[in-house]
């Protein structure tokens, strides 16, 4: 009931100041509140511009409410407003980070599509070559020598690099296949709905008591996006927009100390995100994506360089006498 009280106080002062614009601006907001019989009568008087009747009714209604209402520390309202402002700033930073990560992901997917097979082959050949070198060291009786130990380390590292990249490439292929099942308009819709839904349940934005629910929803959203499940993303967004979404801390907290603690927490998150975004701008991948003008020329150049690397590795394998190039 605090909002109607404050709005009526503004309206009462506006009538005394003879400012009709403020009166009707606040009236529009007042009508959105749950109205009791007394408020209905006030609204009707204001709409009819019967200001003498309105101010008398407002005075009586405010006196009755103050007799019933408990005092609220004004610092609570100030803290709630401060927290709401900080939440909006955090939301804007999260949106910026999401947009940048999406841009990097899209470039990485294109990179995997164009260059993934060549890179996988390079890593496979490096694995083959390292294993050959290790076996040669063992045949020569250098099992305990440092050079043999280094060969074993290199073979193990090459094998891990190959398996790790191969799995990433396969995952990228699955994601690409899922996206290709959608029409271009559906892919744009999937991205748009995902971003809209993620704003409503981002774990960094909700009250602490709702973080577990928010995390679960974000996992479902991300999985649905990866699988190209447009219907699932749309269903989650519909549920969120129907008022079942986790609420912001500024909408749930009503005690001063928890509000102050949350303000400190959000300020720290904002500082951390600003540092993260600054660091992202300095990374080579981001600079490449944002400065690349001739994307096709870049990929053609990379394909040529990688093809040369494949031929070099194949020759090295043949030169050391290993016959398992394929």
Could you walk me through the main structural features you see in this protein, from its secondary elements to its overall organization?
The chain is an all-alpha fold and 326 residues long. It contains 13 helices and no strands. It has helices spanning 2-16, 20-30, 37-47, 51-68, 74-139, 146-180, 184-201, 211-226, 230-244, 249-252, 256-282, 284-291, 295-319. It is elongated and about 105 Å long. Mean pLDDT is 86; it is low at 322-326.
Short description:
The protein has 13 helices and no strands. The chain has helices at 2-16, 20-30, 37-47, 51-68, 74-139, 146-180, 184-201, 211-226, 230-244, 249-252, 256-282, 284-291, 295-319.
For the termini, the CA-CA separation is 77 Å
What class, by secondary structure content? mainly alpha
Largest sheet: number of strands, sense, barrel closure: none
Globular, elongated, flat, extended or rod-shaped: what is the shape?
Answer: elongated
Using only C-alpha atoms, the radius of gyration works out to 32 Å
The total beta strand count reads 0
Order of helices and strands: HHHHHHHHHHHHH
The helicity comes to: over 70%
Number of helical runs?
A: 13
Mean residue pLDDT:
86
Q: pLDDT below 50 for ≥5 consecutive residues: which ranges?
A: 322-326
Strand percentage, roughly?
under 5%
């Amino acid at each position: 009931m605090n909002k109607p009280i404050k709005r009526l106080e503004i309206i009462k002062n506006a009538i005394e100041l003879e400012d009709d614009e403020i009166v009707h601006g606040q009236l529009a907001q007042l009508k959105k509140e749950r109205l009791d019989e007394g408020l209905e009568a006030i609204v009707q008087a204001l709409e009819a511009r019967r200001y003498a009747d309105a101010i008398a009714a407002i005075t009586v209604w405010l006196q009755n409410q103050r007799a019933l209402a408990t005092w609220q520390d004004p610092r609570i309202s100030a803290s709630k407003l401060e927290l709401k402002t900080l939440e909006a700033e955090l939301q804007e930073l999260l949106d910026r980070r999401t947009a940048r990560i999406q841009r990097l992901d899209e470039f990485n997917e294109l990179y995997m599509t164009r260059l993934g097979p060549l890179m996988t082959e390079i890593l496979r050949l490096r694995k083959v070559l390292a294993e050959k070198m290790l076996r040669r060291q063992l045949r020569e009786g250098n099992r305990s020598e440092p050079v043999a130990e280094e060969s074993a380390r290199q073979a193990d590292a090459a094998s891990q690099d190959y398996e790790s990249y191969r799995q990433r490439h396969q995952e990228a292929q699955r994601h690409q296949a899922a996206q290709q099942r959608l029409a271009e308009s559906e892919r744009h819709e999937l991205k748009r709905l995902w971003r809209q839904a993620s704003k409503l349940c981002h774990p960094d934005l909700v009250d602490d008591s709702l973080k577990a629910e928010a995390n679960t929803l974000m996992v479902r959203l991300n999985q649905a996006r990866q699988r190209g499940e447009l219907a699932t993303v749309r269903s989650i967004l519909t549920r969120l927009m129907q008022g079942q979404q986790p609420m912001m801390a500024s909408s749930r907290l009503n005690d001063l100390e928890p509000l102050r603690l949350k303000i400190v927490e959000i300020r720290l998150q904002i500082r951390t995100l600003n540092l993260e975004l600054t660091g992202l701008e300095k990374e080579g991948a981001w600079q490449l994506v944002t400065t690349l003008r001739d994307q096709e020329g870049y990929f053609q150049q990379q394909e040529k360089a990688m093809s040369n690397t494949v031929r070099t590795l194949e020759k090295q394998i043949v030169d050391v006498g290993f016959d398992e190039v394929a």
